[in-house]
Amino acid sequence: MEAVPCRSVRHHQRASPRLIGLCWPRVAPLELSLLKLAPWVAFLPCDGAVMIHSLFLINASGDIFLEKHWKSVVSRSVCDYFFEAQERASEAENVPPVISTPHHYLLSVYRHKIFFVAVIQTEVPPLFVIEFLHRVVDTFQDYFGVCSEVMIKDNVVVVYEVLEEMLDNGFPLATESNILKELIKPPTILRTVVNTITGSTNVGDQLPTGQLSVVPWRRTGVKYTNNEAYFDVIEEIDAIIDKSGSTITAEIQGVIDACVKLTGMPDLTLSFMNPRLLDDVSFHPCVRFKRWESERILSFIPPDGNFRLLSYHVSAQNLVAIPVYVKHNINFRDSSSLGRFEITVGPKQTMGKTIEGVMVTSQMPKGVLNMSLTPSQGTHIFDPVTKLLTWDVGKINPQKLPSLKGSMNLQAGTSKPDENPTINLQFKIQQLAISGLKVNRLDMYGEKYKPFKGIKYMTKAGKFQVRT
Amino acid sequence: MTDSKYFTTTKKGEIFELKAELNSDKKEKKKEAVKKVIASMTVGKDVSALFPDVVNCMQTDNLELKKLVYLYLMNYAKSQPDMAIMAVNTFVKDCEDPNPLIRALAVRTMGCIRVDKITEYLCEPLRKCLKDEDPYVRKTAAVCVAKLHDINAQLVEDQGFLDTLKDLISDSNPMVVANAVAALSEIAESHPSSNLLDLNPQSINKLLTALNECTEWGQIFILDCLANYMPKDDREAQSICERVTPRLSHANSAVVLSAVKVLMKFMEMLSKDLDYYGTLLKKLAPPLVTLLSAEPELQYVALRNINLIVQKRPEILKHEMKVFFVKYNDPIYVKLEKLDIMIRLASQANIAQVLAELKEYATEVDVDFVRKAVRAIGRCAIKVEQSAERCVSTLLDLIQTKVNYVVQEAIVVIKDIFRKYPNKYESVIATLCENLDSLDEPEARAAMIWIVGEYAERIDNADELLESFLEGFHDESTQVQLQLLTAIVKLFLKKPTETQELVQQVLSLATQDSDNPDLRDRGYIYWRLLSTDPVAAKEVVLAEKPLISEETDLIEPTLLDELICYIGTLASVYHKPPSAFVEGSRGVVHKSLPPRTGSSESAESPEAAPSAGQAAEQPAVIPAQGDLLGDLLNLDLGPPVSGPPLAASSVQMGAVDLLGGGLDSLLRSDVGGSPAMGGSGFTAPGPAAPAAMGAPLGSGLGDLFDLTGGVGTLSGSYVAPKTVWLPAMKAKGLEISGTFSRQVGSISMDLVLTNKALQVMSDFAIQFNRNSFGLAPAAPLQVHAPLAPNQSVEISLPLNTVGSVMKMDPLNNLQVAVKNNIDVFYFSTLYPLHILFVEDGKMERQMFLATWKDIPNENEAQFQIKDCSLNADAVSSKLQGSNIFTIAKRNVEGQDMLYQSLKLTNGIWVLAELRIQPSNPSFTLSLKCRAPEVSQYVYQAYDAILKN
């Protein structure tokens, strides 16, 4: 007989539920899944026809400060399972988005330091719920300027009305903020004052016109004295650069955000100099996909106001230029309690544009007690508690490269730290889309007036990391 | 002036104050009061006491006030049904309002009030609203039908709302279509058999048209509905795919994933030679990659789904490895999922990059992540043979870091690498041994000991090393003790001269000084082996072992196919079929991928085909328990299994344990195996499992299935004696035996739960898997007091037949899950069909004749019932007790012919002709039934009843 192999020993310890003959998965010898299923997986009951049953808003300190039920009231004790998971996670960001409880599933998103926890009872596409939750957050932000606990509490009735309008029996009813705003007017100081004086309400009593037309995203009868259409092409570079400065991965997440204030029912077309760049795109529903497929032209009747026309993704490595480099020399000496720290930031492929808003952050190892550094420009802070080093560099002058030099005080007597700090970079480049995307022209049909048109380009760092 | 002021009054008299304000004459004051009430509601305060006062505010022209009151009503109507009825008139009136917004609001709110009395009044307004001229009202009404159906399904059917809803699929407004589809699929889901969404090419076409025009949420409903359609050929599949592909560019990730589901499913029907197939594959990659740039929560769900997709069709993302590289500020749940997918995508082409990344991760801060990264390196080595060497050297580098947990993980995975590539990397053992002292986790210690034992002949001081562990033998965990025992025995067999003392020592430690049964038993086995026949011992212990398989972590293919049909759902996040977490009647119809219609059939997705390694492991796959039971039943007639022919009882015990333990570990290692793989060559150890439970070996089986043992009760159907369904050793000490009975129309499952463990058991619960006749517990499993060790409790669990239905093979197979405070256990059993014979199963004579003629002859099945000495009348009365009714008796040429009928709970009639010859103990039974597949089981029931 073979010595009991460790592999199967592990099996014995982790007997997760498996129903013989039902073809449940074999337990992987090394299950990387984070989902530690409760031994008794939640059996969803058969009575609910509601997709999202309830919503709880929970702040960072674990208080439920708002609850909304679309059907019967679910006891807030269901959130105890969430709190348990919250406790287990080291940081708020690490709370798993799907949690199973004996009778419900909890799907959550964490934004603006608030957990939005949806309770569901039936098999629902989780992305559906999570997308919806994000939409709720965006709507709050749109309505109140910021999405915070205070703001939500200050506007609780509007929040409640909005939530009721967004979802009916689990079916999203109105999630376009254009339409919502016609149903429930967003609070403004003026309106609050007027409402109090005149006793009028912030609930619209007319059916939003856009709701059911072929262009549900646009209301009719829009009028402006100044007709303008602005488009911002914004690209974010996500990259991982290795020790030696070569690129491990780099990709561009681009969006075209629009602010369109045009009278009537304008029909716009936007064409690019190099549309071939865009092979992985997601469109606003207003874009006519057929036209894009055949002619590579964006043709659409725009929503009124601000909206995201398009987001795209460029991952072909040769197309992603890396505009900055970081030279680093971080040295933890083994025996001495002093380490050396030196980084220099410089421009690489910037197409002649200036790099601004440069910000360097780095999470130093626990063993670093303090740092005494001198920057050639900008300001820096090292927080000895969180071990976070932040250096606000500002603009990069190619003639005089910014650098940060000095020494680190290390905990005496311990061996050198195991992990090397990763350098996180923020920067901005105006008037440049790093992928090279260029708008060719913007035309308007269907209306007679001449609109004012503007196009702006910007490149930013997304998750831009340099390993040391 | 913000709403926060509503929160400030938390004094005692609050409710009282609010009451006064609600009844104020001033409109403004009323509205403010209602707002305060709502604000209290949002923070979970109970303001239901204000119900009548709030409802009084409902009749108002002020839309905001009306809405607020409606909000309140929805929350509290259920708790105050009598009060809620006061609101009905206003609702009905509002449904006639000229403003469509108010009409819709009223019908929507009414649907949310789950009070029966209100529901009755809802029907007329709802009917009008479904045909309203305004599409906004129609779309709201469509959803309302789903709500009403949830409250009272019968009412919805009686009122014909379902047909109206179906008509709405052809509505001119895409929003109405989307909501109608959503409502219909919602209803269909709770009634899987209803066939509500009758999908045909015409309706599919309508849906596809609506898909382009309706909102993102509607698109999700439509796509999910499309995914349930089965195209008639590959051409239709392709044309649907073509029309769905644009959805991949949608900004809403749920739309994208639903579209991916449709494509992944219908792709199955396309021939791989088709150009379009390749195009489609290429189109799938970018949207999946894009999902990974979304918010982390979306990423997580996307990654869980991508995990399935790369297992099914690795070619889609094989060039996209880099997008799965981990960023240091990803949340941990995203990191771990990415790591898992990286390993799945690892191949010879990209292994260098992957390894460099993994090595980088191994220096991160998060301990869990680092550990998994180190293990991942090991998995890469096992998966990609060419990389093994590089993986080993990477692991050695990591060991050099001397970071404690990294070293330990590395040693655990190196052990697995040795098991996959024996005699290749032994040169590293020296380095491993250097770290011996730093190992403090049992798993790492056990791994190290295993390595030393396995390669004892090449390690000069193997005896010293092992001896050093032996000093603290009793403080080690069981895992380490077992490993140490085995390793020293291996060492002894390899170097017998120097290590005799050591082996004596460990054997006595394991057998005499330990009370762990596993350890003792294994110790005794080795001891006897060594003392009886050292040569044989060498052959047994040092025999060459099959290599471990590379893909043990893959999801089993049939499950994978099912999960692909559930892309984007919770099932895909948990990697479990919905049947695992959707209860009772709301059971989901089992979905499967469509069969390929093209000619290039044979080896679909070669990646999923079992590899050589898996083939070698196949004996480890046991048949599904249903088959095992079937085999057990068959064995009843065969020769009894005899115990090992050994005299010494202790030896016999050891041997039994060996068998049992072996089976046990085999069972555990692959209970989820597909039933298709079962049935072969595993019958012998099967019966040993229950037999080992204590019954004398020879007769154990006989007893278990001894059909003469039980006495049928007179008051009801024949009841078979109880048999052991779940042996204690498979259920951590819980033994379950039972039988089924039927008495005056009610079926029950009579169980005996026995606690053979050392701890108290409590919190029992039971659940059935879907089965052929919808058997389901009619009440929860009630065990009143916790079950103390060695205690038994008898329970009669009432059953009904309204559970969800899925055809099982064999037909009367029932899979049961039982839970207690320790764990969840599963077993399956066969129920005798006669518990399903209903009391009103007697057919009219004329009817019988007509039906007999009407059923085609090919549905007739003939069986022999042997060795039965009863006469016709005795037979007739005996069968009647089990609801098999004799309709007529005739004597033809000296033979008695009995004509009988019976009816099953699901309404299937079975007609029988039983021929009895006075001289012959064999009866001939002819069965006719419109569902001929039940005949065999009816025969089994006859046989069982007549012989008892």
Characteristic key phrases:
heterodimer; A: 468 residues; alpha+beta; Beta-Lactamase; Immunoglobulin-like; 8 helices; 17% helix; globular; disordered N terminus; B: 948 residues; five-stranded antiparallel beta sheet; 40 helices
Terminal residue distance of chain B: 84 Å
Radius of gyration of chain A: 27 Å
Percent of residues in beta strands of chain B: 5-15%
Strand arrangement in the largest pleated sheet of chain A: 11-13-9-8-23-21-16-19-18
Gross morphology of chain A: globular
Total strand segments of chain B: 13
Give me the secondary-structure category of chain A.
Answer: alpha+beta
Fourth-level CATH superfamily of the domain at 836-947 in chain B: TATA-Binding Protein
- Main structural class of chain B: alpha+beta
Indicate the percent of residues in helices of chain B.
40-55%
CATH architecture verdict of the domain at 836-947 in chain B: 2-Layer Sandwich
Determine the number of helices of chain B (DSSP H or I, runs of at least 4 residues). Answer: 40
CATH topology of the largest domain in chain A: Beta-Lactamase
List the domain count of chain A as a whole number: 3
GO biological process, one term (chain A): intracellular protein transport
Subcellular location (chain A): Cytoplasmic vesicle membrane; Golgi apparatus
Keywords (chain A): Cytoplasmic vesicle, Golgi apparatus, Membrane, Protein transport, Transport
Membrane topology (chain A): Peripheral membrane protein
Summarize the entry for a quick read.
The complex is a heterodimer of chains A (468) and B (948). With 468 residues, chain A is an alpha+beta fold.
Give an overview in words.
The complex is a heterodimer of chains A (468) and B (948). In chain A, the strands form 5 sheets. Chain A has a 9-stranded mixed beta sheet with strand order 11-13-9-8-23-21-16-19-18, with no helix packed on it. Chain A has a 5-stranded antiparallel beta sheet with strand order 2-1-5-4-3. Chain A is globular, with a radius of gyration of 27 Å. Residues 1-49 of chain A have low confidence and may be disordered. Chain A has 8 helices and 23 strands. Chain A is an alpha+beta fold and 468 residues long. In chain B, helix 12 crosses helix 13 (201-213). A 5-stranded antiparallel beta sheet of chain B has the order 1-2-3-6-5, with no helix packed on it. Chain B has a 5-stranded antiparallel beta sheet with strand order 9-13-12-11-10, sandwiched between helices. A 3-stranded antiparallel beta sheet of chain B has the order 4-7-8. Chain B has 948 residues and is an alpha+beta fold. Chain B is globular and about 100 Å long. In chain B, strand 7 (813-819) and strand 8 form a beta hairpin. The chains are: A alpha+beta (468), B alpha+beta (948). The interface between A and B is large, with 142 and 183 residues.
